[in-house]
Amino acid sequence: MKSDWFNLHQIARNSFIATSTVYASTELNFDRRSFCFFAPDRSGFVVLKSEKEFNNALSKARDGSLPSVFYFTAAWCGPCKLIAPVMLELGKKYPHVTTYKVDIDEGGLSNALAKLNVSAVPTMQFFKGGVKKAELVGADVIKLRSIMEHLYK
């Protein structure tokens, strides 16, 4: 019985990974580190709940003052729940990178989602040196770890 559950779990996990896509830029020449002044929630993410908070965070990411990851998620999203612990782990591994968590169902953020062309969850967008260097759509843990290491090590 246990092996049947394990096999089903692996099939489901692999199907999430297989449907993931990634876009990455090869320009990775930024080395300045800075810290975020927003207070993170208990999870370690900086939770953006309003358009104003989102615009402030995006401005910091785009002006190059803050290496950051925008993590777009939803409470009902299974793959988002799968990737969340990995995002927390990577946040601890790369403390100079601020992870912004954006719930796509949060009221007042529809314009924010349109600005970054977010159409699926989970979506992670990686900023460094004022430029979006990569985007990952889906719960591909291996690609997520690879992008984080490549950009922020």
Automatic annotation (TrEMBL):
<dbReference type="GO" id="GO:0005737">
    <property type="term" value="C:cytoplasm"/>
</dbReference>
<comment type="similarity">
    <text>Belongs to the thioredoxin family. Plant H-type subfamily.</text>
</comment>
<keyword id="KW-0963">Cytoplasm</keyword>
<dbReference type="Pfam" id="PF00085">
    <property type="entry name" value="Thioredoxin"/>
</dbReference>
<keyword id="KW-0813">Transport</keyword>
<feature type="domain" description="Thioredoxin">
    <location>
        <begin position="28"/>
        <end position="153"/>
    </location>
</feature>
<protein>
    <recommendedName>
        <fullName>Thioredoxin domain-containing protein</fullName>
    </recommendedName>
</protein>
<dbReference type="InterPro" id="IPR036249">
    <property type="entry name" value="Thioredoxin-like_sf"/>
</dbReference>
<comment type="function">
    <text>Participates in various redox reactions through the reversible oxidation of the active center dithiol to a disulfide. The H form is known to activate a number of cytosolic enzymes.</text>
</comment>
<keyword id="KW-1015">Disulfide bond</keyword>
<keyword id="KW-0249">Electron transport</keyword>
<keyword id="KW-0676">Redox-active center</keyword>
<dbReference type="InterPro" id="IPR013766">
    <property type="entry name" value="Thioredoxin_domain"/>
</dbReference>
